[in-house]
Write a structure and sequence with these properties.
Strands 1, 2, 3, 4, 5, 6, 7 and 12 form an 8-stranded mixed sheet that branches. Strands 9-8-10 form a 3-stranded antiparallel sheet. It has a two-stranded parallel sheet with strand order 11-13. Helix content is about 40%, strand content about 15%. By secondary structure, the chain is of the alpha+beta class.
């Protein structure tokens, strides 16, 4: 469900009702919608709440205000919708002819939402943009038509609390075996040695993102050529063994079966979690909230390297939108050079090469996001997802709960997760 609703116009934010604004009648011209010269209101779903005071929310609020000032004929009517609610509501809204004009979607879920009919294919103008830092044509539906573009890039990194590591006389680990050793010592000192979670809340985001990056590191495909989940084997077993070793070392959190991405990030911020693998989007925020939180490249497994998956949020046009032209103008602005400095100030990595021509990226204030961008470029690769990522993620959370509560081995965790995804 929609948790909050905000109407944003020329920088002013005012609370509105909880009902979705009805779409205007379709404009057969494919243009902005409405009569010529009349203002257009775009409905927009985003998981960020621009009324909050944090770097990402501030950047979103300021960029939308800048877009409206540059485009006085277009107003943005933003609804704050969690990712989980988007995934459940978008197909229903599209079927009812009430999909938002524009919405964000996390990379792994794009094919699934496209298969569910949530998107309008991008207009020709969108396909002419050719300066994406990573290929964008994998953001497509079952017919191969591109439906989304990258809004920001991220990958996985190892976060650690320097103060805790100093207390136990350790340095940042560089292999997964070393992570277990350091996490065990941190647990003996009263901390959660390694933060992760097996809750299926928020689509099992924390364990699924970590798994996605680990599979990229060791070069293991998640699906076979027929789109079936098919990753069980020696490479994937190492991921399961890592979790089992952390469990046996009492280094996982006592509430790991119900822990989510948010509880782990909060644990790092408040100094109760020693280490975790999370997305790079948290780097700038941690720099402001807890300077003891440092980050480094992913630990290495027995095979492979530090190259994780390229992830991130994307933007697309909702199915049946009567405002395709105006929607693309908004998406182009939000992913382009005009919004890049604001995006970067929130710790998110702009996705187009032209964005980095902005003078902001030559200032000391941009050092953090420039370092993240360099890390994403050198330590991640994009890949194509099948249309059942939620099943993959849910299988991992269910198997994780069984690993912790029932003592599954690492290989049993992997086969259990794969079987659950295919069922």
């Amino acid at each position: 469900m929609i948790t909050k609703r905000w109407t944003i116009a020329l920088g002013a934010i005012a609370a509105t009702g909880l009902m979705l604004t009805a779409c205007a009648p379709a404009d057969d011209s494919g243009g902005g919608g409405g009569a010529p010269g009349e203002p257009v209101t775009l409905t927009y779903w985003d998981f960020l709440d621009p009324s909050q005071d944090n770097p990402r929310a501030n950047a979103l609020r300021e960029n939308i205000a800048a877009f409206e000032e540059a485009n006085p004929d277009i107003n943005i009517d933003l609804s704050v919708v969690s990712l989980g609610d988007m995934i459940s509501r978008l197909p229903q809204s599209a079927a009812a002819g009430q999909a938002p004009d524009v919405f964000k979607m996390f990379t792994p879920q794009v094919p699934q939402m496209a298969a569910a009919g949530a998107y309008t294919p991008l207009p020709e103008a969108a396909l002419e943009v050719d300066d994406w830092l990573r290929p964008a044509d994998t953001l497509a539906g079952p017919d191969g038509q591109q439906v989304a573009v990258p809004y920001e890039y991220r990958t996985c990194a190892l976060y650690y609390n320097q103060e805790i590591l100093d207390e136990i006389g350790e340095t940042a680990p560089t292999t997964y075996d070393e992570v277990v050793e350091v996490a065990s010592k941190a647990a003996a000192a009263g901390y959660t040695g390694f933060g992760t979670g097996f809750s299926d809340t928020d689509n099992s985001a924390i364990i699924a993102t970590f798994f996605d990056c680990f599979m990229s590191q060791v070069g293991q495909d998640i699906w076979n050529a027929d789109g079936e989940v098919d990753y069980a084997g020696e490479k994937a077993n190492e991921f399961g063994d890592f979790l089992a070793e952390l469990r046996d070392a009492n280094a996982l959190g006592s509430a790991v079966v119900s822990d989510t991405y948010s509880t782990v990030t909060d644990g790092l911020a408040n100094g109760t979690v020693a280490m975790a693998v999370l997305g790079t989007e948290r780097i700038v925020t941690y720099g402001e909230t807890n300077p003891n939180i440092k980050w480094t490249g992913l630990p290495t497994a027995s095979t492979g390297d530090q190259t994780g998956a390229t992830l991130g949020w994307t933007m697309g046009i909702g199915a049946g939108s009567p405002n395709v032209e105006a929607a693309w103008r908004f998406i182009e602005f939000m992913t382009g050079p005009e919004a890049a400095a604001g995006l970067a100030s929130g710790g998110e990595v702009p996705t187009r090469a032209s964005s980095y021509d902005d003078p902001y990226f030559s200032t000391p204030e941009a050092d953090a996001v420039n370092s993240i961008a360099e890390y994403v470029e050198s330590n991640s690769e994009p890949h194509t997802y099948a249309d059942n990522w939620i099943a993959v993620a849910t299988g991992l959370s269910q198997a994780g709960q069984a690993l912790y509560l029932n003592g599954l081995s690492g290989s049993e965790f992997i086969t259990t997760a794969q079987d659950a995804a295919n069922n």
